[in-house]
Amino acid sequence: MTTAAPLGNNTLSPTNVTTKSQEEILYQSSGAIVAAIVVGLIIIFTVVLLMLKTYNRHMRAKRELEPTSTKAKTPPTFGQNSSNANQPTTVTIVPVDIHMQNR
């Protein structure tokens, strides 16, 4: 039968313990603060995006469920003569020859 020998002193000696300077602690805490701010901004943008998406969906459904107007749209009249309002306005485009004479 064998027995294990005791390992001896289990306490850590001061040479094995690494002490962090105050500057290192500040760097680590500032990194954690920046990470928290970034995560917070991502969460805020996600919430705003979801709100806009829901609003857009709601407004689209509202527009699609609205009854369409049964009135026929009439073109605006450009004078007091109502007989001209019944005739459709036509636009005639005439091509122009732009060639210049050589002198």
TrEMBL record:
Compositional bias annotation for Polar residues: 67-92
Segments of this protein annotated with the region Disordered: 62-103
InterPro entries linked to this entry: NCMAP
TM annotation in the entry: 32-52
One GO term of the biological process aspect: regulation of myelination
Alphabetized UniProt keyword annotations: Membrane, Transmembrane, Transmembrane helix
A GO term from the CC aspect: paranode region of axon
GO molecular function: structural constituent of myelin sheath
Protein's name according to its UniProt entry: Non-compact myelin associated protein
Organism the protein comes from: Terrapene triunguis (Three-toed box turtle)
